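User: Predict the structure for this protein chain, please.
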Amino acid sequence: MPYDASLDECLFAKSWENDSGRLVVSVYAYNRGAKKLQISRENKGSDDEFKFAKLGRMAKEEIEAILPLITEALAHL
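Assistant: Here is the predicted structure, written as structure tokens:
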């Protein structure tokens, strides 16, 4: 079965921003299935638009900033 964006339900989403981009912590449920946590990175381009990027490694500052968001997201799982 191919992915259908209309079946992907966002139950929670909050972000943290710094000068170079933002991290988004969200909870999704696909086709009313299991709720899952997602952490994504968006970098700011030269045009100040956010563009999706691979999450990769995180700095201590980033981890400390999103920990409260993860804790808040747990209530939606």
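Helices lie at 60-74.
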